[in-house]
């Protein structure tokens, strides 16, 4: 018995020792990541195979022009967007069900809320979604650019709009068409959205902030008043000295304005919007009190914009968690880092490496959180889209997650 106890004690100490080693390593080594889904090429769950054949034949589905970018997670559904940058994207807003789907590899995307809603040229339907957000009330805020084929032959026949979809019923419950004076119907690239609903008792007390990467502006929307307006500042424009992104063995040129945005968390009363042009090494922010009070078309003055510091590389999407950590990719390093926004300085010295992988994390595009402490991300090798150099014999598109133990900025950490 005594020997047995001694063995148990030894085992315990051994285990504790190992835990300590793991804990110490965890401080300096990137977190493990899990690839939940991967695709060589994006495919869809068509209503039937005849329709798929017809779409392929008539150029309504051109597989190589389909790239996943936006991601948001709600219960068992992972929502994914496919921008209509070039012809042949049959469905722009979709999901995969990670509880039901048995095919983590090349799983077909399911159009959301329906196939009918993906109809090109029908301005009631959805034309081109880059980003969406899901609020605490189970509503998806869908940003529809309106324009399609924006990289080839832009078709501007539908206006840009914001749709709210109730995820419990999959019904559209609100539509806001952006006026010309707020979002240019022939020039916009509405890119990313964050939403702050300050009062969990009042689902109308919400503001949305949306970046426009074409017109270099930040667009606001007040749900209670059903009103939108915009502000601009020179820090929302691409920095000409930051247009080249070295990725593995190549240099890639992107001249892209304000792109990823993030909102400080619920516990800070959503007081600040963070942003960065894709072509930039800087992270900037502005108080939401300034944005919420601004008149349409206002140019922010320099004292209203904070420059937080120089990050270690260009990034695309960014995301804030409930405790105020901001996450963003370092495109040149196939990695994701985070910084604590409680202090004003956010730069390469405050960045903590979260995850790095030269194969699986080439171009981390957009982030999402679930309610269990995971951060999700899409990686899509986007540098190979503009140069048309995807190798479709390999996995190019992935949904990856990492456990961080925190929820999205929308929730209180308390
Ligand atoms: C997955 O499905 C099982 C069985 O239907 C259910 O018990 C579980 O809660 C589901 N998980 C998620 C994440 O939806
Ligand atoms: C346009 O799309 C909406 C949403 O799917 C649908 O209800 C409507 O019937 C469509 N209109 C036409 C003219 O097809
Ligand atoms: C919208 O952009 C076009 C250029 O594409 C420009 O000619 C036009 O003046 C702009 N309209 C507004 C309202 O800013
Ligand atoms: C990328 O550009 C940098 C800076 O101009 C240069 O030093 C490097 O050799 C280039 N790399 C490639 C693969 O062309
Ligand atoms: C610039 O912003 C500061 C701080 O918000 C404000 O006090 C000042 O009035 C602004 N100046 C102009 C010219 O708008
Ligand atoms: C880049 O990745 C390496 C791992 O390959 C890591 O050690 C390094 O800290 C990363 N640098 C940045 C700036 O993220
Ligand atoms: C962020 O920094 C603040 C101030 O130094 C600190 O109180 C807080 O615990 C930090 N947050 C995290 C998540 O580490």
TrEMBL record:
Swiss-Prot/TrEMBL keywords: Membrane, Secreted, Transmembrane, Transmembrane helix
Residues spanning the membrane: 7-26
Gene3D superfamilies given in the database record: TolB, C-terminal domain
Alphabetized Pfam families for the sequence: MRJP (PF03022)
Subcellular compartments: Secreted
Primary subcellular site in the record, as a coarse category: secreted
Family per similarity comment: Belongs to the major royal jelly protein family.
Protein name: Protein yellow
